[in-house]
Design goal:
The strands form 7 sheets. Strands 21, 22, 23, 24, 25, 26, 27 and 28 form an 8-stranded antiparallel beta sheet that branches. This protein has a 5-stranded antiparallel beta sheet with strand order 10-11-12-13-14, with no helix packed on it. A 3-stranded antiparallel beta sheet has the order 1-2-3, with no helix packed on it. The protein has 1 helix and 28 strands. It is elongated and about 90 Å long. It has one helix spanning about 305-315, and strands at about 5-10, 15, 20-25, 25-30, 35-40, 55, 60, 70, 85, 90-95, 95-105, 110-125, 130-135, 140-145, 150, 160-165, 170-180, 180-185, 190-195, 200-205, 210, 215-225, 230-245, 250-255, 260-270, 275-285, 290-300, 320-325. The protein has 2 domains: about 1-145, no CATH class; about 195-329, no CATH class. Strand 16 and strand 17 form a beta hairpin. The protein is about 5% helix and about 55% strand. It is mainly beta and about 325 residues long.
C-alpha cells in the first residue's frame, strides 16, 4: 500500500499528499478515545479515493505556543508518522476536559470557529507543573505538559496564563485559564487543589515552608519549568477564616468567587496559653495524624461552637483537649 502524508495548512484544513498537495475542505472532531477525525465536506474524485471522513490516531502533545499536536501512529495507518498541529487557543478547562477553539476557512473564504472537546484528567507532575492526561483506548493516556507558571488569583482559584500571537493581527494576547476547584491540605509537605476526586483531577504539589496565620495559609513551592532547569519559587497564599465547629472540627473557611465557600478540615490538639491565645497542633482529620504544623490564634476570633469549646477547654483539668469531629465535653 502506498504511504501518504498528512499535514495541516494555516487555516486548519487537512492536506493530503500522496503525490501532489491537495487541501481537503472539512472540520476536525474527536471520538470517545480522543482519536482525531476529519470530516471532509467534498471528497476528491479521480485516482485518489478518499472517504467522507479520515480517522487519525497517534500521540497528543502541547507545543511551546500552546497548540495541540498529534504525531500520527505509523503502525495504525500507512503514513510517514507526520505531525498534525492544530492552530488555535485553549478556550476553557473543567474537571474532565480541555476545550480547544479551532478557526478555519472554507474554499469560499468563509471563516468559522468550532471547538474540540478533549477528555481526560488534570494532575501535577514531579516538577509541580500542570498536566492534562488525555484518555486513550485501553486505559492508556497521553500527557499535555503546561510549561508556564501557574498562580493564585484574588478569588483563591488556581489560574494559568499563556501568551501567543493572534492569527490575524499578529499581536500578542494573554489567555487565562481558571481552574474551578478547592484547596485541601493533608500535611506540611504537600498541598492539593481538587477539581474532582471522582475523575482523578487533583493537583498535588510538593511544598515546603508552610506558614499558618490567622487570615491565611501559605506554602512555598518550587516549579521546574524544564526537566533540567532550576526550580522557580512560587508562594501560594490562601486567604480565609478559622472556625471551630462541633460536628466538624477545626476548619479554615476559604471564600471563592460569588461567595462560594469551602472548608479545609483539620483535627487539632488544643490548649490555652497565658496570652489570651489558643495553641493548636494540627492533625490530618481523616487519619488523625500529626501534620507537623502548629497554629496560635486569638480566643476572640471564635464564636458559636468555638466559644463553647473554649469554655470546655478552660474548665478541663487536662492541659489540652482534642478539637475534631468527635470532640466531647
Amino acid at each position: 500500500m502506498q504511504k501518504v502524508r498528512y499535514e495541516v495548512d494555516p487555516y486548519n484544513r487537512l492536506v493530503y499528499l500522496p503525490k501532489f498537495r491537495k487541501v481537503l475542505d472539512g472540520k476536525f472532531k474527536t471520538d470517545a478515545n480522543n482519536d482525531l477525525i476529519y470530516h471532509i465536506k467534498s471528497p476528491l474524485s479521480g485516482d485518489d479515493i478518499i472517504p467522507n471522513q479520515l480517522r487519525l490516531s497517534g500521540k497528543w502533545s502541547l507545543t511551546d505556543d500552546h497548540e495541540l499536536r498529534l504525531t500520527l501512529d505509523k503502525s495504525a495507518r500507512k503514513t510517514f508518522g507526520d505531525q498534525i498541529t492544530l492552530r488555535g487557543e485553549i478556550l476553557d478547562v473543567d474537571e474532565s476536559s480541555l476545550l480547544f477553539a479551532v478557526t478555519t476557512t472554507t474554499k469560499e473564504n468563509v471563516r468559522s470557529t468550532y471547538v474540540l472537546n478533549i477528555g481526560g484528567s488534570w494532575r501535577a507532575d514531579k516538577n509541580n507543573r500542570l498536566t492534562f492526561h488525555i484518555r486513550k483506548e485501553g486505559g492508556k493516556y497521553d500527557i499535555l505538559t503546561f510549561t508556564g507558571m501557574w498562580e493564585i488569583n484574588k478569588n483563591n482559584r488556581l489560574i494559568y496564563q499563556y501568551e501567543k500571537a493572534r492569527l490575524i493581527r499578529k499581536k500578542r494576547q494573554v489567555h487565562t485559564l481558571v481552574f474551578k476547584g478547592h484547596w485541601d491540605i493533608t500535611d506540611s509537605a504537600r498541598i492539593a487543589y481538587v477539581l474532582s476526586k471522582d475523575t482523578g483531577s487533583v493537583f498535588i504539589f510538593d511544598a515546603r515552608a508552610a506558614v499558618f496565620k490567622e487570615k491565611y495559609i501559605q506554602y512555598e513551592i518550587g516549579i521546574r519549568l524544564t526537566d533540567r532547569g532550576r526550580k522557580e519559587p512560587r508562594t501560594v497564599r490562601i486567604y480565609g477564616s478559622w472556625r471551630l465547629k462541633k460536628d466538624t472540627g477545626l476548619i479554615f473557611e476559604v471564600e471563592y468567587e460569588n461567595r462560594e465557600t469551602r472548608a479545609i478540615v483539620f483535627g487539632a490538639n488544643a490548649r490555652l496559653t497565658d496570652k489570651d491565645q489558643i495553641l493548636l497542633k494540627l492533625k490530618n482529620d481523616i487519619k488523625n495524624k500529626d501534620i507537623g504544623i502548629s497554629l496560635e490564634l486569638s480566643r476572640k476570633i471564635f464564636t458559636g461552637d468555638g466559644e463553647a469549646f473554649l469554655k470546655a477547654l478552660a474548665s478541663k483539668k487536662e492541659t489540652a483537649i482534642y478539637a475534631g469531629a468527635a470532640w466531647r465535653w
